[in-house]
Amino acid sequence: MAPALAPLFLAALLAVQTTPAADPAALKKSCDKGSPADCHRLAGIFARGEGVARDAAKAASLLKKACELKLAPACLELAAAARAGDGVKKDVPRAVELYQQACDGGLPTGCAELATMLIEGHEVERHLGRAADLLARACDGGLAHACGALAAMYADGSPVPRDEAKAAALFGKGCDGGDGACCGRLAAMTLGGQGVPRDAARALTLARKGCDAGFGPACVVLANEFVRGDGAKRDPAQALALFTRACDAGEASACLGVGELLRDGTGVARDLPRASEQFRRACEGHVGAACQELALLLAHGRGVPRDLARATSLYRQACTDGDARGCLELGRLFQHGGPVQRDLNRAVGLYEEGCAKASPGACSELARLLEVGDGLGRDLPRARTLYEKTCASGIAADCYSLGRIEFRSPAERKQAFESFNKGCAAGSAPACHEVAAAWEAGRDLAKALAFYKKACAGGHAPACVRAQKLSP
User: Fold this and answer.
1) Helix crossing, 380-392 with 413-425: angle to 10°?
2) Which residues of the chain have pLDDT under 50?
3) Which of 53, 54, 14, 18 is nearest to 39 (CA)?
4) What CA–CA distance (Å, rounded) separates 271 from 18?
């Protein structure tokens, strides 16, 4: 149902019909008699130079008169002129007043333009709370992209309380209004079950709608669905076409998707040189994962000439752009030397950065350095804290390392046994050996033998010796 029009705006629309012919003389006569619609029409003629010399100042003067006569569209255009200094002296405070006047006169675009100024904070002081109120008015007035901007505020929890259900509802309203970005954002939320029940099939429909409307991220969501086969049958060729379309339109994350499909060659022809080019495009768009993938190709000479110096630079960029794997790989280079001079302090800094970005591998490397010291000084309490984190994430060797630290305290032997047991279950042969030793000390030789055999099968030579001695 269309929103009700404000009385002043409705009157202005009706007044447009007063002088049908676009005759400047007739329009001027009608304008002089107080017709805001004809003042507005005449302003347009002077602004565009239709049959008369273009005169921005004259156009602005006529817009001012029409605005004073309560014609909201004239106020909106005069606001833009005052903001840009077109025909009138540039006056941003006056533009703000006029946008507000247009908004109050029933024009949702006036509300949205002012909201944008308040969000950006370049021309006026930033005020997100007032912007949210204006976006709500613009959305209620039927402006789809305003619904999307307000929905994003609720999704982010700023400046309004975080409310994913409300965000989803607003994205839905914007999508229904034809805004592709809203469709794409709602598709991602529907796929993840954020604010709405998870529904892969509906997410697919929304993503397609957003993609068809030209919103690149929606094409990426849709392509990923064809890669995973979640909500649609797996179709790598279709995914490649969608990724390529979005990539060519400037969506950097889509270039990453193209590169991954071409690198793996699953369902499409494998093409490492072309994959590297797509990773480069995505990396230049600050997609950290793409920088990391390109670095790996260069480091190993896969599809491109081997170039460790450039790979090193790309690891740094990947780390900076949010891919913790880049921090980890670059940290290893500084720890062990090779393409770069060995520098343990820089290695620690990179592991710290990667660990903060939730890389279990970076946390693990940092823990090992802190446990051993290696010229930096030992810090067993912190190493233990990190091992607890990485063991919980499934790194079997770190459960073994954690158990060794715990075993040093007689009061923590039971906890050490649990850590060793967890490490053994995750595949650490040394951890299985420790579990076996504990069972042997407890005189349960059957269990001890079973764990020694498991450790031996994992390549732990001392366990093989013990297993042979305990075997019947």
Assistant:
1) 40
2) 1-20
3) 18
4) 66
The pLDDT score that the predictor gives to residue 231 is: 75
Which pLDDT value is given to residue 297?
Answer: 97
Give the pLDDT score at 232.
Answer: 79
Q: Is 346 exposed, middle or buried (0-12, 13-18, 19+ CB in 10 A)?
A: middle
Any idea where the domains of the chain sit in the sequence? 1-142
Closest CA to 189 of 174, 178, 241, 177: 174
Tokens of 62: 């006529």
pLDDT of residue 5: 37
Q: What architecture is domain 1-142?
A: Alpha Horseshoe (1.25)
Cα separation, 208 vs 187, in Å, equals: 9
Query: Cβ distance 364 to 393 under 8 Å?
Result: no
| Structural tokens at position 213 | 């409307």
Return the number of other C-beta atoms located less than 10 Å from residue 394's C-beta.
12
Rounded Cα–Cα distance for residues 327 and 317 (Å): 9
Name the E strands within 203-357.
none
Q: Which of 358, 366, 361, 400 is nearest to 382 (CA)?
A: 366
Nearest to 188, CA basis, from 171, 173, 212: 171
Spatial contact of 350 and 362, defined as CB atoms under 8 Å apart: yes
The reported pLDDT for the residue numbered 460 is 97
Strand ranges (DSSP E) for 165-268?
Answer: none
Q: What is the pLDDT of residue 12?
A: 43
Look up residue 150 and give its amino acid.
L
Task: Please state, in angstroms and rounded to a whole number, the distance separating the CA atoms of residues 157 and 144.
Answer: 20
Residues in CB range of 286: below 8 A, 6 or more apart: 252, 321
Do the beta carbons of residue 291 and residue 317 sit within 8 Å?
yes
pLDDT of residue 442: 93
The model carries a pTM of: 0.76
Query: 93 CB contacts (<8 Å, ≥6 apart)?
Result: 124
Cβ(263)–Cβ(296) below 8 Å: no
What pLDDT, in 10s, does the model give residues 1-58?
333 334 334 344 444 444 445 789 999 999 999 999 999 999 999 999 998 999 999 9
Q: Which amino acid is at 294?
A: L
Cα torsion angle, 98, 103, 105, 109, sign: positive
* Residue range 449-458, pLDDT digits in tens: 999 999 999 9
